[in-house]
Fold this protein.
Amino acid sequence: MVHNRILNRLLLCLGGFLALIPSMLPAQTVAKYGADFLSGGVDARAMAMGNTHVALVQSASSTYWNPAGLVHLKHPDIGYMHAERFGGIVSFDYAGIGFPVGQKSAIGFAAIRSGVNDIKDTRDAWDFERDTPKPNPENNFRLFSAADYAFYLTYGRKVRDHLAVGASGKLIRRKIGPYADAWGYSLDAGAQYQKGNLRLGINLQDMTTMLQSWSINQSEFTEYPEYGIPKGGTEMVLPVVRLGSGYDWNMGEDGSRLSLGLDVDMAFDGQQKYAFSAGSLSVHPRLGAEYQFKKALALRTGIANFSKNADGSVALRPMVGLGLMIRQAAIDYVFGDFSGPTAELGNSHMISVRLVLER
């Protein structure tokens, strides 16, 4: 009886997981969360500041936050981050590099992987003719991974003394074990304006509309018609406008400073269940602050999102973090809630490292 209950629950979970595929794949549909694995951000410094980095970014992570930020690099810049999100269920990795080309240009590359490993396919453990589990059902489980990948190629250029622009070509690879896979592509474009201590930025994410073309391995479904046989199709991920602002105060000749950031994301894909929205437009404000002491230690905090709970009350996602700078290297840490308004999947700890290859 215990085995039956456990197996039934596993089958229900798998059935629900596989049932998502047909609903996701009608031809030319708009996918509200088609690239949601990219929405959490990269770089522990940016995330500790509530993801307010569209105007403030000046590192290799500009490939993600704002391609125009690459022009501030004086030397090759390398960044890496690993995270276990949603209570360790989702593994997330980011690696990026940027380097200047001449006095006014820079290029960058980045790769992201977000995946769930060791998912159990329990269909082989069920005897459909007898409608009971097979003997020793655990011996018939198959393990697979569901992973999403993103690859960036970025170019930034300074066009005026206070203005820089940039663009990122983005390639997406999504794979659900041996069952389904997709390729996608889009273009991001951004600009940064800096005069004195004031910074402004804009990043048009997926400005060309991301297209993801899914294909299905039909042989994995024909053996189990009870679960249905999905068909491939094309998803469209609509653009997101990310507006950013920031201000720096120099706190002394020793390099200490205070930085504040305010960003607003505007999406047009109908993600309005928990967001502040009007029709198909949803608005996602963010706040962040950093105090850097003598270019050696940084204290950071931020609110990654203002949203609504199911009862209509306002929900906040606070973040806190630390940064330690040692000559050409930096180690950044962030702690916060990455599970969204429901907050049922716990908090996460993330660490990223940065290396500036200065001679």
